[in-house]
Structure formats: C-alpha cells, structure tokens
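2024-03-11 09:14:02 DEBUG pipeline.ingest accepted 1 chain
2024-03-11 09:14:02 DEBUG pipeline.ingest length=254
2024-03-11 09:14:03 DEBUG pipeline.predict start
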Amino acid sequence: MEAILRRERLIIGGCLAAMVVLAWLYLFHTKMAMPEMDMPGMVMLDIHEWGPTTVLLLFVMWAVMMVAMMVPSAAPMILAFLTVNQRRQATDRPLVPVAIFIFGYLAVWTAFSAIATFAEWGLHQAAMLSTTMTATSPALNGGLLIAAGVFQLTPLKRACLQGCRSPLSFLMSEWREGRAGAFVMGLRHGAYCLGCCWILMALLFVAGVMNLLWVAIIALFVMAEKILAQGELLGRVAGIALVVAGGAMVAHLW
C-alpha cells in the first residue's frame, strides 16, 4: 500500500509540475510574441478593437495564468486528497480519481478568469488601460493597493488562509463521497483559495497583467502564505506594506 501511494504521489506530482511548466511556457511565449506591448497572445490583433476573439484570448490568458500561479500552492492539498483517498480504498471505500478534485478547484479559478477578463475589457472601454495591460489611473491603482492591504488584515482573509494552510483539517471536515463529492470538495477548496487571494490577483492591474516578474512574485507570495510556518505573519506584514504604498500613491495625487 505504501509503495503504491508513493508511486501515485510521484505520478500526480509530476502531472501537476507539467501543468505548471506548460502554463509558464505559454505565458513566456505570449510575452515574447509581442514584447514591446506585453500583450497576451494578441499577435496580429488590433488592441483598439476588442471583439469576441480578443476577449476569448484574454480569457485563455487569464485561465492559463491562474494555473501557473495557483496550482503550486494547491499541490499540498491535492496530494493530501490523494493520500486520504488511497487509504480509504484500503477499507473498501470507492476510489475517486484525483483529477475530479483538481477540476473542481480549477473551475473556481476559471470563473475568476472570466470576471478578470471582463474587468480588463471594462478598463479598456473606459480608456483606463495602457498597452502594457496596466491600469492608467493612479487613484485606481492606489485604491487597489490600499484595499489589498486592508483585506490582508481582515478576519475573512485569516479564515480563508487557514482553510488553505491545513489540508488534513479541510479534508476531514469537508469530505464527501463519490465523484460528485470530490468535485464539490475541489470547488470548496477553490473557494477558500479565491477568498484568500482574489485581491492579490487584482494587483496585476497595477503591476501589468503580463508583467511576468510580478506574476511570479505574487505566485511565490501566495505559496509562502500557505506553506511557510510564519505565512500568516508574512501576510499581515505585506498588508501593512501595501496600505503604505497605496497611501503614498494616493497622497501623491494631492
């Protein structure tokens, strides 16, 4: 049983790593396709005419980016689900493919990607988005920084982060049988992660949606919050820093 579990963990871990590597390769490819404009897969498209094709490509970019950013920090929960699932099979419980749990998790971030896409389209329509996919309003950018910093200090943030930091506690309290149950568990874990990280993703409008350095920094920060022993403290310190940075940006307007 232990040998099978180790083999399964290696296989699933390898699949997760492959997903993340492919996602990053896609982001680098689209970055290199039009480096002067930092556009997401928009080669040969007129950015001044955002039709359905443009919006669809933006959605794909956001969805792939969420895989690149969120799957690494979700890996401990996914591997914990695999372990619990395998051990339950030893007691004649039905085995549920771990892919169903992953699909549920990614469904949440796919929905977020759709919302982010329409937010980006709205900024473009309002002439508040640069060709580097950065919001051009200092007031908006400062407000986003302050909002993200304040959210880092709220009880909701702590509750959602705790749900992400304790895989076994989550699985023991949220376990549901069957394939539908695994999908719902993936949805619920995705909801915890979304509640924890959504406004951090919104900061990409401040740094530039296709600024891959900041994409990587935010992804590493999200992972550190979830995995490190002092992750909660790190999140609070970052919250204070974001409030200060946002306050300075807004104060500069006056």
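2024-03-11 09:14:41 DEBUG pipeline.report The CA atoms of residues 66 and 109 lie 6 Å apart.
2024-03-11 09:14:41 DEBUG pipeline.predict end
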